[in-house]
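Why do we bother with a discrete structure alphabet at all? Because it lets us treat a fold like text: something you can write down, compare, and reason about line by line. To make this less abstract, here is a complete entry for (rape) hypothetical protein. Read it the way you would read a sentence in a foreign language you are learning: slowly, and without expecting to understand everything at once.
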Amino acid sequence: MSPATELNGSFLSRLSFRRNQIVSMDVNHEQQLQELEYFKNHVSERFSEFISPSPPSDPILSIPWLRNLLHVFISCETEFKEVLPTTAQISKTPSLEKVLSEMLDRILKSLDICNAVVNGIESVKQSRRLAEIAVTALKQRPLCSGSVRRAKRALTSLLVSLNADVKDRNSGGGSSRRRITSRSWSFGQRSSHVGKNWSAAKQIQAMVANLVLPRGAEAMPVYIMSSVMVLVMWVLVAAVPCQTSSVPVAPLQLPKHQSWASNAVNVQERVGEEVKRKEKRGGGLMEEMQRMESVGLFLMEFTERFRFPGEEEEEVEEKVDEMDEICRRMEVELEDLQRQVRAVFQRLVRIRLEIVSVLDLNL
């Protein structure tokens, strides 16, 4: 073969290789876009089903509602794990490595929040037991002063744990109210993994500080999953008494023009309205806790005015039955919620390990 022929063959070989490389890149990019679109649609559908269920859903921030939200998170996380390998193989870019590293930090903060929420649920269980004591005492027949005193002691402790407003007997006016607070409510049940100055609200704020809409498609799945994770953690902090002094009203700035984000924003806005309306500084907006507080305040007023022998009051009996029903439902549902939060914790641990593996391969 002449030198000219050999040179020409080498050139054609390189040209063919380059063309194949370009075709491969186009195919990979197309696959990435398809998987991204599927993931976005999946997140959108899950949130759409969550906010507009058929039949009508449970009350917002109720335990079943929270469990359904965690189901949404688990479903989205499962799909994210399917998208992650393709994204990592095709787009080995510094920008992707950056958002993955930031996601690792968010996961660590989410793990701490899960621990705080599990401990917070333990506090709610204690509140339920206090309510149960009050119910048992007020169901005694005939109702005597001793039973009412037992109920009053339990209700006082219950309202302290719920950080409720009660009438101030020493104010001289029936309309004056004071807030019963318990310092141990925020700090007595904290996780062993966090310090005294740790705050769930500060963790949420740190998680959203650098969470911005990416320009390229390669980082979009990470952004979406991070947004879903922050949203769910924020809702848990709002619903369950955690180690926090306040709850941000609307921490996420999401692109509403995208369907997955508009449905997530709907959840944030609805919960944000509850945060503003209830003005609970340390979380605890769980619907069952709100009902327990309302009934507890009513029954406390009854114990204040009770004089033996007292006449049976139909409304009081109805409220006692309502508190009894709340306690019975919470006994099972709190266990289920706590178990599910622990499951989310384990999933976060596993996805963190997968992201670490991806980053190690890209180094």
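What the structure line is telling us, in plain words: Strands lie at 165-167, 177-179. The longest strand covers residues 165-167.
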